[in-house]
Specification:
This protein has helices spanning 5-25, 30-44, 50-54, 58-74, 86-110, 116-125, 131-141, 145-177, 184-212, 218-239, 244-256, 261-287, 291-296, 300-321, 329-337, 343-358, 367-392, 410-421, 437-441, 454-459, 475-489, 510-513, 528-536, 552-557; strands at residues 402-406, 426-430, 446-448, 465-470, 494-496, 519-520, 540-545, 564-569, 575-577, 591-596, 606-607. By secondary structure, it is α/β, with parallel strands linked by helices. Strand 5 (494-496), helix 22 (510-513) and strand 6 (519-520) form a beta-alpha-beta unit. The longest helix is centred in the first third of the chain and has 33 residues, at 145-177. This is Cation:proton antiporter.
């Protein structure tokens, strides 16, 4: 047995992060790995049972975590993203949610055998998907922009709506079955929901104003946001149960659309907190399940209900609600299939299972098993199928992960051409239209704008590009870009051209700039000026395949000392850019792409 609550809490956190790493390392759906981990340490081996061990702290802990996760997700909902998808998002979140509620309730009654009262409560709840399960899948599948945005917006907006539908259904049931019906209860529900939205909006506006006026110092901004989120959620939930989720969503959307730079700066902190909370909370929920609940999942009525929800209710609600929108058939098919349920469904159903059972609805006792069956079936099915299905429907960014190159000049054009010839996507970004003429003339993909512009964030699709290469003449700008985008691309995938030169440029100290963000590309002795000079004076791109007879050592000896080693292509297709911090040693079968002056003549070299 676990010796203490502290050890148990540490174990849950450790296993949560380990599950995320395992999923990343072996390219598996993170939610599936977390669910299996929770089941193994909980009901399977009986190591822990967080619900019993944490006692009264368990439910508030789950609720607070869900509130923060939902708030973090809503911070990404900028209304500018709705251009072109506003109509389908609105339809899915309203008409689609209503259709899913009605069809889900009918299915729960006729297939799962629930009474009408319990069926309509659980039918309302199961319209949710949620950022805790949608976001990991979107990161995994690398969908094209439109279906990804539709799924993201739906997941965050419908989460509180599903909880509210369940509360609304329960209030209607209470009203209709009461000996002395009191219509004020229904009015109180609507008043509580309106209050929750207003509270979230007011706190969002107030917090944004304080940040803009400088009333909160930088080091207190993140803690202040977390505390205000908890305040917002708690007050709304006290006034009307389950409206806290609606309130924090309204607060997040309000802040996201105020255009406050400090809120954008905190987004990476919130994402880190969200990933940690998602990992730990999902493991806590699955580890708290009883063996009897898991056995109950295999009830034919429950399995039949889950299958109908996945293959009939969800697709119908999407196809019917998106009639007349610009979504293509393939996009409707994908969105109609992807609807995993997660933390909100598990937590809210647990609450209603207790409330309905106390109200005399004995069939509510199977709600936990029913919910978990839907969660585990959808998480596994959608987690393992989204990548395959999106490729089949031509809705994923196909091909190898490429590079986003900042700065248009003769060298970057050569580099982009070499990537294109090697079948790796690339795009050149520059704020100068004149500089971009080089890329345009070569037929390369380009984007006119600044990487730090908000317009670029909304209009440039960065999903196909795994690497960021900064090669502008402004060393400080290169370092700033690297520092800004490290959280998005990862520290090992962000590069900058060498800041070292024989003279001081633009008044900046190369020694200082070299210490800020990003790994140095190629070799620190080659400045951008050196690279451009080589590209303009006879150096050409060559691709060579190493072998057991022609090793990397032989390759270097056969080359001019001024050769620039650009990137390496592994037999698996993995792309690696050369850097002095590069740990990979080129081996037999690897292809080396370089900018060199002389053509190889060695018969053992596989030059192409």
């Amino acid at each position: 047995m676990v010796p203490s609550l502290l050890f148990e809490f540490m174990l849950i956190g450790l296993l949560g992060v380990a599950s995320q790493w395992f999923a990343w390392r072996f390219r598996m759906p993170a939610i599936v790995v977390m669910a299996v981990t929770g089941l193994l340490i909980g009901p399977v081996f009986g190591l822990i049972n967080p619900e019993q061990d944490f006692g009264n702290v368990y439910s508030p802990l789950i609720s607070v975590a869900v509130a923060i996760i939902l708030f973090e997700g809503s911070l990404n909902l900028n209304f500018r993203e709705l251009r072109g998808i506003g109509r389908p998002v609105f339809r899915i979140s309203t008409i689609g949610a209503f259709i899913a509620w009605i069809l889900g309730s009918l299915t729960a009654h006729y297939v799962a055998g629930l009474s009408w009262a319990v069926a309509f409560v659980i039918g309302g709840l199961f319209v949710v998907t949620g950022p805790t399960v949608i976001m990991p899948l979107l990161r995994q599948a690398k969908l094209k922009a439109r279906p990804a945005k539709v799924l993201k917006w739906e997941g965050i907006i419908v989460d509180p709506i599903g909880a509210l539908l369940a509360v609304f259904a329960f209030e209607i049931i209470t009203f209709m079955t009461a000996a002395n019906p009191d219509v004020s209860q229904i009015l109180l529900f609507f008043a509580g929901s309106i209050f929750a939205v207003f509270l979230g909006w007011a706190l969002g506006r107030g917090l944004g104003w304080m940040f803009e006026m400088g009333h909160v110092p930088e080091f207190l901004k993140s803690p202040t946001v977390v505390v205000v989120v908890l305040f917002c959620f708690t007050i709304a939930d006290v006034v009307m149960h389950e409206t806290g989720l609606l309130s924090v969503t309204a607060m997040g959307i309000t802040l996201a659309n105020m255009g406050i730079s400090s809120v954008s700066d905190m987004r990476h902190f919130k994402e880190n907190i969200s990933v940690l909370l998602t990992s730990t909370i999902f493991i806590m929920l699955t580890a708290s399940l009883e063996v009897d609940t898991i056995i109950q999942i295999f009830n034919p009525h429950i399995i039949g209900y889950v299958l109908l929800m996945m293959f009939a209710v969800r697709p119908l609600s999407i196809f019917l609600s998106t009639i007349g929108t610009k979504l293509s058939f393939n996009e409707k098919l994908l969105v109609g299939w992807i609807a995993p349920r997660g933390i909100v469904a598990l937590t809210v159903s647990g609450y209603f299972a207790g409330v309905l059972t106390e109200a005399g609805y004995e069939d509510a006792s199977i709600l936990t098993a029913l919910t978990f069956a839907l969660v585990i079936f959808t998480v596994v099915a959608h987690g393992f199928s989204i990548g395959w299905l999106s490729k089949k429907l031509n809705l994923s960014n196909k091909g190898n992960p490429g590079a986003l190159i900042v700065g248009s000049n003769p060298f970057t054009v050569q580099l982009a051409k070499s990537l294109k010839e090697a079948n790796y996507p690339s795009i050149i970004v520059d704020s100068s239209w004149e500089n971009l003429s080089l890329a345009r003339n070569e037929g390369l993909d380009f984007y006119h704008g600044s990487m730090l512009s908000e317009q670029t964030e909304h209009h440039l699709d960065t999903i196909p590009y795994e690497y960021l290469l900064t090669l502008t003449h402004d060393k400080a700008y290169n370092s700033l870009l690297c520092t800004t985008f490290i959280p998005e691309y990862g520290r090992t995938n962000v590069f900058k051209v060498s800041p070292f030169t024989t003279f001081e440029d633009n008044g900046y100290s190369s020694g200082l700039v070299s210490q800020v963000g990003g790994r140095i590309l190629f070799n620190k002795k080659f400045s951008l000026e050196d690279l451009i000079e080589k590209a303009e004076n006879g150096f050409t791109v060559r691709q060579t395949t190493l072998s057991n007879k022609f090793t990397f050592k032989d390759y270097k000896q056969s080359k001019d000392p001024e050769t620039v080693y650009l990137f390496l292509i592994k037999p698996s297709g993995q792309l690696k850019f050369f850097s002095e911090e590069m740990r990979t040693v080129p081996a037999a079968g690897d292809k080396i792409v370089s900018l060199t002056k002389e053509k190889e003549t060695d018969s053992n070299a596989g030059e192409e």
